[in-house]
């Protein structure tokens, strides 16, 4: 009995100490006023005194941000707060701002299950406000959506190749920034070369540093020394708040005489011969099986009556045409929203970046059909000027996000969120359109 009483007192003391040590979470971003495309590290720190292995984590939607596919390992440490020793679990995500203005990151919630000594609890972070700045004017022609600090290097797998053989050109962009969003630089390859681009390769081992390799397979048919032109990349450096460029040196490749050229040439010649062969004419009998051609007056008897009917019908058609066109336009206007809804549904099954492109096409198709003229990104504000200001703002946000998402790492959830927002806003536009 005495042992049971001591155990009960120990459990009471343990539970009392546990109850005083509330679990909580902190969230932060490393840059509070980033530029569009500038990477932002979103970090959560979970302070707990209990086992949270079976917890349920509810992440925010990160509306207005693209999320990197890179996943960093969580770290575990200990820290004392208010005389309580906590286990601290820290996890970070890499986000890319997609649109200008004040963006809100919703709270992240953790649901901690019940234990024999404590009831289930839920803890969450506070909302975070991120003020996203627009990139300044004056971007160089080689600027391809790159924001950060980068270096560039160009290499080839060989500097000597037989005519008709392949050389692989690799352009490596490395540094700190939105590596995943960068698209291939423009390279001024001569028209006489045969150029086949390859799929880019992204390597990222940390949240801050990564590299992206763009590759092209080049085929040279003429012997001699050829020069692969220099490659230039422009980027915006948030540290210096200015645009910078990096350029590689030209690379010389020696093209020697080889068998590959003659073999390929023979294949091309053989293909040309096969395509140039004319089919053999069909055999015809000596006597024609066609009946003799009827005289001219026979054809006039067949042609004159239809001409008379046509002359009588044309004036009546001209009178009824405006009415049919008006009816057709009204019916077409009613079908515009249905067609756009079908386009957005089709975008659900597409790959994330392709889905963003299809959403953008659906919005502009809808506005073009409603206004009766082609609407582009340059004049969209003018064409929706008759709509309520709030509705204009929401519609332009959908246009901007669908354009930015084509170059940002986005998830299926981001696509579904934008699809829902776009459909909701277009329904409101349909009611307000005059």
Give a description of the structure:
This protein is an alpha+beta fold and 434 residues long. Helix content is 35%, strand content 30%. It has helices at 2-20, 259-276, 296-347, 352-371, 380-383, 389-404, 412-432, and strands at 24-29, 40-48, 56-58, 65-67, 75-81, 84-97, 101-105, 109-112, 121-124, 128-132, 143-156, 160-162, 166-177, 194-197, 201-204, 210-219, 224-228, 232-237, 242-247, 251-256. Strand 5 and strand 6 (84-97) form a beta hairpin. Helix 6 packs antiparallel against helix 7 (412-432). The model is unreliable at 1-20 and 260-293 (pLDDT under 50).
CATH level-two architecture of the largest domain? Sandwich
Share of residues in helices? 25-40%
**The biggest beta sheet, please?**
7 strands, mixed
Number of domain units: 3
Q: What sort of overall outline do the alpha carbons produce when their principal axes are compared?
A: flat
Q: How widely separated are the two ends?
A: 85 Å
Number of helices: 7
E-strand count: 20
* CATH T-level fold name of the largest domain: Immunoglobulin-like
Note poorly predicted spans: 1-20, 260-293
What is the H/E string? HEEEEEEEEEEEEEEEEEEEEHHHHHH
Beta fraction of the residues?
Answer: 25-35%
CATH classification, class level of the largest domain: Mainly Beta
**Mean pLDDT over the residues:** 79
